[in-house]
C-alpha cells in the first residue's frame, strides 16, 4: 500500500485510527468476513513519511517476512530531499541509535552506548535541483527514525522535518521522505517481488521525475 503522509500506521497515544485497522475493516467488508480479521504489519514507516507499507494476510506469512527482515533479506529504498549545500555524491552513515520514548526521538552516537542499536544506510545523490538535492537511501537496518536521525546528525536534516532540525515545515504536515521501493524473494513462490510507490505529486516531488 502507498501510504499518504500524515496517516498513522499503528495505534499510538493520539487515539487516531491507524492504517492497520482501516485495512482490516476494508478486508472484512470486501470479503464479507465474520469475526476478527488477521492482518500483520511487515514494515512500519513514520506518520509524516509517505510510501510503501506491507501487510501479511496470515500469521505464517508474517513470521516468514519477519525472519527476512531480521536477516536483512528485504531491500528498502527511500527518496528524500535535503539542501544542495551537501557535496558528497554517495556514502554510508553508520553508528548507534538510541530511542528516547518520552519525546519519541532517536539520538546518534559513533560509539555504542547503553540501550543503543547499531544502524547503517547507504546513500547517493540521484538528482540536483536549483536549491535541493534528491537522495536515494538504501536502508540496511531499520532503527527508530534512522534515516531522519542520520541526516540530521551530518547537518542536513530532511526538508520539513522540524523534529530533526529542519527550519521550515511543509503545508501538508509531512516531510520529504518517501518509501520508494521494497524488494524481496517471496517466502512461498520464491519469485522476486519488486514493489514501487510513486511519491505525492506535490511540492518538490512534482518538480522531480519519478524514474
Task: Provide a concise account of the structure shown.
The protein has 211 residues and is of the alpha+beta class.
Question: Could you describe the 3D structure shown?
Answer:
- By secondary structure, this protein is α+β, with helices and mostly antiparallel strands.
- The protein is globular.
- It has helices spanning 19-30, 59-70, 146-153, 203-206, and strands at 2-3, 40-41, 50-52, 55-56, 75-83, 90-100, 105-109, 117-128, 132-139, 177-185, 192-196.
- Strand 10 and strand 11 form a beta hairpin.
- Helices cover 17% and strands 32% of the residues.
- The two termini are 19 Å apart.
- It has one domain (2-206): Pseudouridine synthase (2-Layer Sandwich), CATH 3.30.2350.
- Strands 1, 3, 5, 6, 7, 8, 9, 10 and 11 form a nine-stranded mixed beta sheet that branches. Strands 2-4 form a two-stranded antiparallel sheet.
Summarize the SSE layout with pairings.
Layout: E1 2-3, H1 19-30, E2 40-41, E3 50-52, E4 55-56, H2 59-70, E5 75-83, E6 90-100, E7 105-109, E8 117-128, E9 132-139, H3 146-153, E10 177-185, E11 192-196, H4 203-206
Parallel strand pairs: 3-10
Antiparallel strand pairs: 1-3, 2-4, 5-9, 5-10, 6-7, 6-8, 8-9, 10-11
Amino acid at each position: 500500500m502507498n501510504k499518504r503522509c500524515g496517516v498513522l500506521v499503528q495505534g499510538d497515544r493520539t487515539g487516531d485510527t491507524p492504517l492497520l485497522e482501516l485495512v482490516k475493516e476494508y478486508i472484512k467488508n470486501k470479503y464479507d468476513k465474520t469475526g476478527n480479521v488477521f492482518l500483520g504489519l511487515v514494515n512500519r514507516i513514520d506518520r509524516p513519511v509517505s510510501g510503501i507499507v506491507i501487510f501479511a494476510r496470515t500469521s505464517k506469512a508474517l513470521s516468514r517476512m519477519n525472519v527476512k527482515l531480521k536477516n536483512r533479506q528485504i531491500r528498502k529504498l527511500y527518496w528524500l530531499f535535503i539542501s544542495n549545500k551537501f557535496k558528497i555524491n554517495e556514502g554510508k552513515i553508520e553508528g548507534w541509535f538510541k530511542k528516547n520514548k518520552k519525546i519519541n526521538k532517536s539520538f546518534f552516537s559513533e560509539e555504542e552506548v547503553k540501550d543503543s542499536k547499531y544502524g547503517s544506510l547507504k546513500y547517493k545523490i540521484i538528482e540536483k535541483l536549483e536549491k535541493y538535492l534528491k537522495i536515494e537511501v538504501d536502508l540496511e537496518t531499520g532503527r527508530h527514525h534512522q534515516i531522519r536521525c542520520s541526516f540530521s546528525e551530518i547537518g542536513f536534516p530532511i526538508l520539513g522535518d522540524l523534529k530533526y532540525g529542519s527550519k521550515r515545515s511543509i503545508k501538508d504536515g509531512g516531510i520529504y521522505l518517501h518509501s520508494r521501493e521494497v524488494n524481496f524473494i517471496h517466502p512461498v513462490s520464491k519469485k522476486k517481488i519488486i514493489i514501487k510507490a510513486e511519491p505525492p505529486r506535490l511540492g518538490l516531488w512534482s518538480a522531480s521525475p519519478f524514474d
